[in-house]
Amino acid sequence: MAFVLGLVLGVFVGLGLVVGFVKSENARSKRRADLAATTTAFARMTVEDSRKILPPQYYPSWVVFSQSQKLTWLNQHLTKIWPYVNEAASDLIKASVEPVLEQYRPIILSSLKFSRFTLGTVAPQFTGISIIEDGGTDGITMELEMQWDGNQSIILDIKTRLGVALPVQVKNLGFTGVFRLILKPLVDEFPCFGAVCFSLRQKKKLDFTLKVIGGDISAIPGLYSALEGTIRDAVEDSITWPVRKVIPIIPGDYSDLELKPVGILEVKLVQAKELTNKDMIGKSDPYAVLYIRPLRDRMKTSKIINNDLNPVWNEHFEFVVEDESTQNLVVKVYDDEGLQASELIGCAQMRLSELQPGKVKDVWLKLVKDLEVHRDNKNRGQVHLELLYCPFGMENGFTNPFAPDFSMTSLESVLKSRTNGTEATESEQAATQKRKEVIIRGVLCVTVISAEDLPATDMVGKSDPYVVLTMKKSEMKNKTRVVNESLNPVWNQTFDFVVEDGLHDMLIAEVWDHDTFGKDYMGRCILTLTRVILEGEYKESFELDGAKSGRLNLHLKWMPQPIYRDT
Predict the structure, then answer these.
(1) Residue 443: helix, strand or coil by DSSP?
(2) Exposure winner among 117, 131, 280, 542, fewest CB in 10 A?
(3) Residue-level pLDDT at 32
(4) Three-state secondary-structure class, residue 67
């Protein structure tokens, strides 16, 4: 009997435990569902919803909602701490900028240093703030727009080559720009990031005046412009993006935040046309200055072409790229004035972000007076470039089969990758330690097909045109037959040129009008051999430069015979 009673009680107790466990689990499941619904509701709340639930007076003073409130809070606290920032940052900025000033010191000065540098009592004001979406989760990137019309006290102690010492005051300094602030990497410990990286992302305005204390700065010719250029170049070099300053907050290795080269830009400066004449007598003597960063050791200068408004340079340069997404190639064309300062004819720039890695881009850039001024209707001429950007580590087969351990320029490598060759033996590679240069040798076949809409040069409204083909380096020439009394001549004549160095040679096609007692120039087109070497052959209609109208139809074909030489 006791056994039966115990069995019955055990069954009821077991059923009770099962029922209780099921109810408990159902209750926990309901609570989790309610919590998830509440969390989802909070996640969907807008700023206006939160203001309805909790009035602003209940929030801490640092929690704000609108953009203007954020900036007001930031500017108020910056004003409070500015005296401490001035004291701490003045010596730091002086120590970091002074070496840059010395690097850019004008040749007329023997010494250029700060004798006084303070940021003043007026704090800068932030006028905009934004968060940059870069697709990464290891840091935060912000951009702060800043305006500063302060009362800085900056005095430069300069000494000329003649031994004259002058104190020069930098006055009325006004600045507007956008600073980029990178907080990276994000960590678990306070303040939640390991280092601060800052840089001047965009310089919108930088105005200042220079005054010699107790004297006149114009007493030394060229001093004002030289000092002004030095200061602007120092700003460009020391803090302008992609240059950045890294300040460690938590000890660690932050070398990945430092400025590093990411690739090489190959530039062929081909020619310019229709340049503005800056000389009263004769024509300008143009040359070009090219750079990505305005550092003296990174700026490239072309040769001077005397007395020519349509110069042909055909020069090759290489530039180090540190941020292809934001950097530009700048080209400035000057008129050489001998012992006097050169006069700017015009300038242009090309965004590196518009270049496709590993692909040659052929561009004509319009020259303007100032890169900061977007509207310039005056015709100052155009400059012709061939550009190739090659990022480091790019898998593009850029190797020299004859000497894989030796360097080649990227453009040479691209051209070599399109040609055939045999590989050198190990003994041949071991026998030489010299750099190998690729010589793109071959035969260029040029078919002069026809011309269209040529200008009339004869009294009867016709012309007797013919074409002269010239290889610039070898000066080999060929010419077509004369087509009498035609503005749309058809030749269909083919000429072969043996080219010893296709990478650095050019084809010049000139159209002339034949006369009994002479000839009249009608126009020309100048072609590098880059495209025909890369493509093998192509047919194109080219506009005649130096003519009111007219086009020349050509067919070009390349038959490569690559060779290599020690340099």
Answers:
(1) strand
(2) 280
(3) 62
(4) helix
What value, to the nearest 5°, has the Cα angle with vertex 312 and ends 306 and 315? Answer: 110
**Any domain includes 52:** no
Residue 438 or 368, more confident: 368
- Same-domain status, 80 and 164: yes
**What CATH number should be reported for the domain holding residue 470?**
2.60.40.150
Please indicate, yes or no, whether residues 75 and 114 belong to a single structural domain of this protein.
yes
Q: Is 217 found in the same domain as 81?
A: yes
Nearest to 352 by CA among 340, 339, 363, 338: 363
At 58 the pLDDT is: 55
Does residue 106 form part of some domain?
yes
**CA-CA-CA-CA dihedral for 206, 292, 112, 164, to nearest 10:** -90
Residues 280 and 220 both lie in one domain: no
Residue 79 shares a structural domain with residue 218: yes
d(CA 476, CA 288): 28
Report the 10 Å Cβ neighbour count for 459: 6
Which of 158-167, 212-221, 391-400, 463-472 reaches the highest mean pLDDT? 463-472
Full domain range(s) for residue 302: 263-391
Q: Give 255-293 pLDDT, tens digit per residue.
A: 878 888 889 999 999 999 989 988 778 788 999 999 998
Say whether pLDDT at 396 is over 80. no
**Do 273 and 186 share a structural domain?**
no
Chain centroid to CA 91: how far? Answer: 32
Integer Cα distance of 225 and 330 in angstroms? 21
Sheet arrangement for strand 465-471: 477-479, 465-471, 506-515, 518-528
Question: Could you tell me the two tokens for 125?
Answer: 């004001």
Strand partners, 336: none
Q: Look at residue 397 and give its three-state secondary structure.
A: coil
DSSP state of 215: S
Question: 205 has which bridge partners?
Answer: 176
Which residues are 300's β-sheet partners?
Answer: 290
Which tokens hold the place of 489? 């001549």
Half-sphere exposure at residue 217, Cβ-oriented, CA atoms within 13 angstroms: 18
> Could you give the CA distance from residue 319 to residue 299 in angstroms, rounded to a whole number?
9
Nearest alpha-carbon partner for 300 in 274, 323, 341, 332: 332
**Which single residue is written with the structure tokens 């296709």?**
502
Pair (112, 237) in one structural domain: yes
Which residues are 361's β-sheet partners? 387
Q: Are residues 76 and 216 in the same domain?
A: yes
Query: Rounded distance, CA 144 to CA 297, Å?
Result: 31
Is residue 275 domain-resident? yes
* Cβ pair 287, 301 in contact under 8 A: yes
Number of H helices, E strands in the chain: 7, 25
Closest residue by Cα to residue 262 from 338, 397, 357, 360: 357
Min mean pLDDT across 26-30, 178-182, 477-481 is at 26-30
